[in-house]
Amino acid sequence: MKNISKKDEAKEKALLHFLCRTKQGKYAKIDEDSLAFARVKEEREENETLTETFYYNVS
Question: How far is the CA of 22 from the CAs of 17, 26, 35, 40, in angstroms?
């Protein structure tokens, strides 16, 4: 009998669930042309203030 940790058991269960759903057709192949639009690019600006202010923008 194997000694499998709970973490490994959970990973195995998740993988089997994913494979079963894939076999059933729940997932489709990713269109490679749309991959460029799925990425979020990070931009950083330096300012000389004493307080830290964070701005988030998705474009």
Answer: 9, 6, 20, 27
